[in-house]
Amino acid sequence: MLMEFNVKILNQKYCVALDDKDELQHLKNEFVLPNSIIYLGGNTLGARPHSSSALTQQFIAHEWDEKLAHHLSNEDYHTELPRDLGNKIAGLIGANNDEVMVADSTALNLFKTLAAAIKIQAKKHPEARLIVAERDALPTDIHIIQSFIELHQQLYQLELIEHENELEQLLATGQVAVVVLSQIHHCTGRLKDLMTINRLIHQHFALVIWDLCQSVGVFPTQLNQSQADFAVGCTYKYLNGGPGAPAFLWVNEKHLTTFWDPLNAWNNHNNPLDIIDFYEPFTGLKRYMSAHQPIISMRLIECGLNIFAKTNLEAIRLKSLKLTDLFIELMEQECADFNFKLITPQEHQHRGGHLSYNHPFAYEICQALCARGVITDYREADIIRFAFAPLYIRYIDVWNTVQQIKSVMQNVEWQIKPYLLTHNINYD
Amino acid sequence: MLMEFNVKILNQKYCVALDDKDELQHLKNEFVLPNSIIYLGGNTLGARPHSSSALTQQFIAHEWDEKLAHHLSNEDYHTELPRDLGNKIAGLIGANNDEVMVADSTALNLFKTLAAAIKIQAKKHPEARLIVAERDALPTDIHIIQSFIELHQQLYQLELIEHENELEQLLATGQVAVVVLSQIHHCTGRLKDLMTINRLIHQHFALVIWDLCQSVGVFPTQLNQSQADFAVGCTYKYLNGGPGAPAFLWVNEKHLTTFWDPLNAWNNHNNPLDIIDFYEPFTGLKRYMSAHQPIISMRLIECGLNIFAKTNLEAIRLKSLKLTDLFIELMEQECADFNFKLITPQEHQHRGGHLSYNHPFAYEICQALCARGVITDYREADIIRFAFAPLYIRYIDVWNTVQQIKSVMQNVEWQIKPYLLTHNINYD
């Protein structure tokens, strides 16, 4: 990186020059961001697209009213929305058309894919009764697996692994039915290699479900190319779909006909208004969808996805790596004395979209940074997450963040009580 | 009804006089309704409250952005929303504070309450393995029960009853674990008596789950007084929460501590950010909530509920009965020659909020009425549903609807091909 402008010490001017050269820099204008803050929480809740305002007004002023006035005729529109949104996400995760569905929450989608995977395995490998996940996975994922097992009256067993190499040992027993993994770890930011892991899992006749929450929109995942089985992910982080926006679900085409949704209701039934005794699922993708979806929250997802359509994930990943490279180098140059320890891998092939640092006073530092308008994310134990969403984070933001961290540490601001720290928001 | 103004023939003037006397008439102004249509589909999708426009703008312009800027501090706000909305619904269904939660869809809430009820019964009455529902229940409900049973590998069995008296016979076998019933039938509009049915079910040690989709907001349900066990219902019909708005769930206080959500994830965990091995559910109401909720769709529900706070359900039920009385009488007076057959009970104690008529050309008549700006709802087989939402339907609307039906029948308009029928929408 340093070689790019042949400088020895990184400075503000250098960062401004990087922004000037940035092919994605105009996309920041697509978002509403207070100019008094630097928002590094995009892997928790994405920024708000400008177009969201007009879209909600349009929804309110036209669609709801139109739906009333054309009661009989427009049912199709809203049942097609999960598929239409899914098709817009497909290109971001290496999936084909009509393989992705937007509906429900990530947690419910994990439940559904787990039920589908277990149903396939119960036929093919009834002796395999282990469901494997990482001990430090997102607790949501673990809870969903636990409740799935409880619902099956302990017929299956959860095995939590501490390190990736334990996976191979477990697989070798021939007892593993399904493996649930996150592509990018929510805490450490470590990136896993789908191709290698999928091959290993399939060698032992197990199936894999990938949680893409921390990767979709910041890393070009290749689901089909790597021959994954199932994937789930959320739309409110890097995809900027809005608070609590519905999640997505992907199923490998080879499992599509055997896919079974344990929470089926209205919309995945071929004849939803018929009174029938037995469930006949849709023959296609629609069978993924459990029930009515919250339409305005669904519609808002389009705003973020339309911005992705103006660029490509290779450019986004390239900028993501340059932003995190710059932050790592600047932290070494400016904050080496302050006891921060990078826990995200340095190697590009193992690095996700955010950087996590360990510090004994991480929580207090987060609050002091927030008071200075730098929004980061605290995680147990003693971890600060910095997410650099390439669509709206500039190189100068990286420079300014490191300068703010330096000031917080030099002034020992993290010792000030939280309620004394305030910051004003300014959108002008 | 006829006696009220001592008239022999019901006429337009009489209906206008009823509107003038109507204590709820001002509430129609709370809704956006095109003045060129009469909207009788409020039991499918409620009308749009005026306040929805300002609320979405406020959400878009402030809450999303604020949430970014105060990343660390306002998590509580959104996790309290399901409970706050639930407390606003509690008074409409005879529930107490902190017994109702708004989250997920009706289908998922049925799944959750069914899992909870079965878990209670598996301990108390393990021999009871039947789940009873009505054969002509909403197909959603039946599909959810079927998939619940499939997930339990046929440990339980679904019994579909044709008539209410079959329920007692089944209960007498001592094999019934759970009964799922709708308070007001989606098709016939028949109203069930909770008190009598709950007593019968409990005499045989079974539990009951009530589907309130067709009753909430139009009938003063008494869940606690009638000692029901569980209830679910939607917010987008008479409550006017917006397309696909999240649903609600009620649990009798006595089951609250044993309630178990099989789809638990983030938010019903006491320490959602901790990494733990085993699920420890919230000790209170929060354990009902499966996962992140779509916030803007949640917030919109408030608009409709705030209108209910300006009146009471006794006044709403009174107007509902007067509207349906008037429609029945006018249909007899004006349309007796046209072969319509009322299938909703005439007796007030058995009549819900909508009226259903059978007609051999029901589907075609629905379309012809739609072309004349009268929005009704067609259901298989040969049924037209007319929903009279007391908050925004006037007596003059009832008069005009019957006149339009009369014209459609006299002009044989239902024989015209659907694509030749159009109507213009006019909000002026």
UniProtKB/TrEMBL annotation, chains A, B:
Pfam families: KYNU_C. It is an enzyme of class 3 (hydrolase). Pathway: Cofactor biosynthesis; NAD(+) biosynthesis; quinolinate from L-kynurenine: step 2/3; Amino-acid degradation; L-kynurenine degradation; L-alanine and anthranilate from L-kynurenine: step 1/1. It catalyses: L-kynurenine + H2O = anthranilate + L-alanine + H(+); 3-hydroxy-L-kynurenine + H2O = 3-hydroxyanthranilate + L-alanine + H(+). Its EC number is 3.7.1.3. The keyword rRNA-binding does not apply. GO terms for cellular component: cytoplasm. Its cofactor is pyridoxal 5'-phosphate. GO terms for molecular function: kynureninase activity; pyridoxal phosphate binding. InterPro entries: Kynureninase, PyrdxlP-dep_Trfase, PyrdxlP-dep_Trfase_major, PyrdxlP-dep_Trfase_small. GO terms for biological process: anthranilate metabolic process; L-kynurenine catabolic process; L-tryptophan catabolic process to kynurenine; NAD+ biosynthetic process. Keywords: Hydrolase, Pyridine nucleotide biosynthesis, Pyridoxal phosphate. NCBIfam families: kynureninase. Belongs to the kynureninase family. Catalyzes the cleavage of L-kynurenine (L-Kyn) and L-3-hydroxykynurenine (L-3OHKyn) into anthranilic acid (AA) and 3-hydroxyanthranilic acid (3-OHAA), respectively. Homodimer. This is Kynureninase.
